[in-house]
Amino acid sequence: MNISQLNDLYRQLIIDHAQHPHHHGELAQADQQINLNNPTCGDVIDLQVIFENEYIKEIAFSGDGCSISQASASMMCDLVKGQSTAQAKQEIAVFLEMLMNNPDEPSETLGDAAVLAAVVKFPARIKCATLAWKALEQAITQEEDHGGN
Fold first, then answer.
1. Is the separation of the CB atoms in 21 and 78 below 8 Å?
2. What are phi and psi of 38, to 5 degrees?
3. Which of 21, 24, 40, 104 has the fewest CB atoms inside 10 Å of its own CB, making it the most exposed?
4. Which residue positions does the secretion signal occupy (predicted)?
5. Are 48 and 85 spatial neighbours (Cβ–Cβ below 8 Å)?
6. DSSP output for 83-118
7. Average per-residue pLDDT in the chain?
């Protein structure tokens, strides 16, 4: 597969997640709800998480935004649902490191989200890609600060 075909495949994966996001909606009894926005482009995410015994039992998001922010939120939710909060924090750190400092070596642990390494070619879009991840980071921190379940 040549680089052009690979780029097309990555682009299609992002479009698929944006048009048919996983975990899109609301949770009835969320333990944490974080609302973040990117004032630069107008992306808004409302992330809801249910924690159980330091694990992410359920996660959902809603809001409006570009294809990158919606796809990133969908991919993140797929990745972290069922993980411990410690694992999720590690994935957040790996994702942010990839976009900020090391886009040429995306981590296989990120699953589909590794394709978002291509966003670094468009610096203004990095905030779009990281919005959901930063919301999850805040949700975990707030849950830990409040003693968890």
1. no
2. -110, 100
3. 104
4. none
5. no
6. -BHHHHHHHHHHHHHHHHT-TTS--GGGGGGGGGGG
7. 88
> Do residues 113 and 70 lie in contact, with contact meaning Cβ atoms separated by under 8 Å?
no
- Three-state DSSP at 35 gives strand
Based on its alpha-carbon atoms, the radius of gyration of the chain, rounded to whole angstroms, reads 15
pLDDT higher than 50, residue 1:
no
Handedness of CA 6, 71, 125, 139 (dihedral sign): negative
Residue 133 Cα distances to 1, 32, 93, 113, 137, angstroms = 31, 14, 9, 11, 6
pLDDT tens digits, one per residue of 46-92: 999 999 999 999 999 999 999 999 999 999 999 999 999 999 999 99
Q: Which two tokens stand for residue 114?
A: 């590794």
Question: For residue 99, which of 74, 127, 134, 141 has the smallest C-alpha distance?
Answer: 127
Q: Domain span at residue 56?
A: 3-145
Which two tokens mark 11? 């682009």
CATH number at residue 78: 3.90.1010.10
